[in-house]
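User: Quick sanity check before I run a bigger batch. Here is a single chain. Can you write out its predicted 3D structure?
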Amino acid sequence: MSAGAVAAPAFLRSRPQWSVLAAVVVAWIVWCMLAMRSGGHADHAQMQSYSIAAALDSGAMWLTMVVAMMLPATVPAIRYVAYATRRQRRQRSILLFTAGFVAVWVVVGVPVLGVVEIIGGPVWIGVLALSAAALYELTPLKRKALRRCHRTLPIRFDGRPADQSCLRFGSYQGYWCVHTCGPAMVAVVLLGHPLLVTALVGAIVFAERVLVRPDRLRLFVGYVGLAYPAAVLLVVG
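Assistant: Done. Predicted structure follows.
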């Protein structure tokens, strides 16, 4: 067996989050393809339809957004889950955590997409929602939610208790992630999910959760978002 064949599994074993990051890459590829197909952003005036096909399409777009924008921010939690459980079941634990996390966003997406189908259309509505999301960055509720996102729950080592604890922790992370990022996600959808704005919001979400002291970036994003709504209008349309 070659040294490269041995090194590759060792590399992956030391980075158990690889499976989630692979899903994120696939989601961004799909997102870029959808954005190019729609000319950069969706036209809500043309998309409004209450058919089953339209609902499924909107649901698939929402799920792709969640995987592409929200999952990268869970990498620290995923590593915690992986190393808290038996080595042979790390990917199982990560899958259960991810399922719990995504399930919360799916439940939230149903009413959000219903409202968007009703009020979506003019760009100014999306810009107003983005300004509201920026204002939310400055509130105590956002600060509380962001700090809760950095907390952990106990993870059991093996068996059904481990499965249940992974699902519970994933749901807990999803719940507080919705409180942290929900307004920005709604704004992106109302804007027609343009690729540039989607990528920017995804980067901010990741940075708030992983890279920097969250309160500093939170305040910066809030003030900048309130000061430059005109720039968003130029970007999207």
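Residues 159-190 form the longest helix (32 residues).

User: Great, the batch can go ahead then.
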